[in-house]
Amino acid sequence: MTQVSDNELLFQSLCIGAIELPHRIVMAPLTRARSTDRVPNELMEEYYYQRSSAALIISGATAISEQGYGWHGAPGIYTAEQVEGWKRISDAVHASGGRIFLQLWHMGRVSHPDYQSGQLTVGPSPIAATGEAHTPHWQEAACRSSGHEYIGNCKRH
Ligand SMILES: Cc1cc2nc3c(=O)[nH]c(=O)nc-3n(C[C@H](O)[C@H](O)[C@H](O)COP(=O)(O)O)c2cc1C
User: Fold this and answer.
1) Which of the residues 50, 87, 104, 111 has an alpha carbon 20 to 30 A from that of 58?
2) What is the pLDDT along the chain (157 residues), one digit of tens a residue?
3) Where exactly are the structural domains of the chain?
4) CA 84, CA 97: separation in Å to the nearest integer?
5) CA distance 98 to 100
6) Do β-strands 154-155 and 149-150 pair in parallel, antiparallel, or remain unpaired?
7) Cβ(38)–Cβ(69) under 8 Å?
8) What single string gives the DSSP state of each residue in 58-104?
9) Across the chain, where does the E strand assignment appear?
10) Cβ of residue 75 lying under 6 Å from some atom of ligand 1
């Protein structure tokens, strides 16, 4: 049997279901929090278009419902406007020969009542999450709780 080096393997094609990748350099999902209203925008389109020479792009995590939303600036795919935004992005990637998968996201218990009209978050178990949630006000809250003054950003004395 012929031995193939890692470098050679990286540049060999690969089939994932019906999708054929020309090589194996895949872009990992990266939440960039660039959506101001949860709708994929032109900045995101440019970002993915610029990276379409990857064999496959996996998009940043994208909320599947209002209930599953929990990261400030992240996009969704549960309204017609969001679907249209993603179509523009996938069209731009396809037009330059690339491939893109959407990473679906339901944040469950690590959402926050600020995203749920004050209601508690929903998860598969009654166990509370530890850590901090990223809400529009998380930075301000983190700043004040560490005893600093907040003036648009954290002012440390
Ligand atoms: C800024 C940032 C955003 C990220 N966003 C996501 C994401 O949306 N979905 C996900 O599954 N992983 C996300 N990740 C994890 C990366 O995909 C991960 O770091 C990458 O696959 C490399 O793996 P490693 O950190 O274990 O080396 C993110 C990482 C960073 C640094």
Assistant:
1) 111
2) 678 898 899 999 999 999 999 999 999 999 999 998 999 999 999 999 999 999 999 999 999 999 999 999 999 999 999 999 999 999 999 999 999 999 999 999 999 999 999 999 999 998 988 987 878 777 777 778 888 877 766 665 5
3) 26-111
4) 20
5) 7
6) antiparallel
7) yes
8) EPPPEESSSTT--STT--BSSSHHHHHHHHHHHHHHHHTT--EEPPE
9) 14-16, 19-21, 26-27, 56-58, 62-63, 100-101, 104-105, 149-150, 154-155
10) no
Name the pTM for this structure: 0.87
Q: Print burial letters for 130-142: b (CB count within 10 Å at least 16), e (below 16).
A: eeebbbeeeeeee
Spatial CA neighbour of 37 closest among 67, 81, 91, 2: 81
Q: Which two tokens stand for residue 35?
A: 């959506």
Q: What are phi and psi of 11, to 5 degrees?
A: -100, 10
Residue whose CA lies nearest to ligand 1 atom number 4: 30
Select from 27, 30, 100 the residue to mutate for testing ligand 1; criterion: most ligand atoms less than 8 Å from CB.
30
CA–CA separation, 93 and 110 (whole Å) = 31
User: Which amino acid is located at 115 in the chain?
Assistant: Y
